[in-house]
Amino acid sequence: MTVNVNQRVLKKAIGIGLTAVMGATLLAGCSSDGKSNSAAGGTEAPGKAERVTLKVEIFDRGKSPKQYTITNNFMSQMIQKNFGDPNNIDVQFVPVQRSEEVTKLNVLMASNSDVPDIVFTYDSSVFYRYAQQGGLTEVGPLLEEHGQTLKKFIGDETLAFGQLDGKQFAIPGKRAITGRYASYIRQDWLDKVGLPVPKNTDELYTTLKAFKEKDPGALGTKTIPMGMSLGSAQLETLIYSFIKPISGDLTYSQRYELPLHEGFKDAAQFLNKLYNEGLVSKDFSLDEDKAQVSKDIQNGNVGFFSEDVDSLFYADGTLENLYKNVPGSKLLPADVLTNAKVDNKYIKSRYASNGMYIMIPKSSKRAVEAVKYLDWMATGNNLIDIYNGVEGENYDMVDGIPVVKADVSQEFQDRLFTSGDTAIISNGKNLGDQAMNEKAWISGFPVNNQEPLKQSIDIANTDTVGPIVFGKPIEAESKYGTTLSDKLNVIIVKTAMAKPDQFDAIFEQEMKDYMSLGGDKLKAELEQALTEISAK
Length: 536
Description:
17 strands
């Protein structure tokens, strides 16, 4: 996984500089307003007519249509009319550039006066840091009193991601789709080599060898039996098919923690075998953003590969380009990689059920209004309208699913430019259950691609394992994560390219280095946290 320079800077700011930047200011802000930040949230008594302002963070992506701004647009006006005015609240959106969200949030959180009443982050380490420093309102009592609809919408499983030491300090957004990856095989190549769709890893190996030896695409040296890169979709799909979950259907959550799972060496050795026999992309080690493997797939050079569940199926996307570039080609979703350590199931990772961490700063005097706003968003059709616009103009409801109308005018399309960033309680279009969410998602793709996408989603949801929720920060993740992430890529590349008779020695040396770079401390902390969970 590539870690860019900005991410490194943010990690450093979070791990080292946050206390220095925020420290006394944040905690002083917490203590100075302690009484007004109880479950009452500092609001006036019921029935009083004072109009108040609720400030809500929103990502600014710099792409506002000319008739709108990020703070004054169709969605903000709709929210003011339907939530703000009936509750005597002025809803004010506070823009934060998406590319600088953590840096800006640190500055806002250090301010008693400028910080919005609702803030959020996708970074769990940022959430834990604020919670540990006492900078967040405990929202559990507020949810009980003012957020029952919201609480039901989010669900206990997802709410757990926002807890520290058993107390609710964040309201996690709910992810609509948790399936991540699916695999695909060229049906036309199978037909030419006379083989059925493989059903397990051994049969896949036989098929890959046939693709190389019989060259069904008549490509010569351009033939790539199995597409591979250092991207998550390719690498993690392979590795998860070898590792043993830590507990039940749960694993450690970070990619750089994969070497700590039983079976990781088996995955590395299988990749070594494929590489040495010329069965995977030769230069996969240079393809960190999977740009080259995507190009090879679209040019018809790849026989089998794994990918993000939706990646192929957009208009003018990978699947359509393949069919355009290679007449007669046929790509088939196929669940192939089996895990010998887990009853030969098709083990693969799934997303956690949470999206962003929604937080109310301790200094906010509008905690009640904040929870009421989020509860309103979860009520009735409000979330559907935020995501989809106006029924009858932007969309029609068909069997409970909002279906985008054909030929929607640009004016109506422009209404939705802030939709995803406004609907903070939901990562994706949530309609109540995942089956409905998936149907709604599929309906937005080109008609010819909808059936293979459905098959891909079914694969992505089969035999999945998810992340363990520890309910507290794993300090070693913040301290060593960047280094170990880089080291994981080194391990993969060096062991894959090793001569088979040198594999064991190189693997052991690379793992020794991994442990010395913080892997040993990470392993110890994870195991201790797991023991504490088991003891409860």
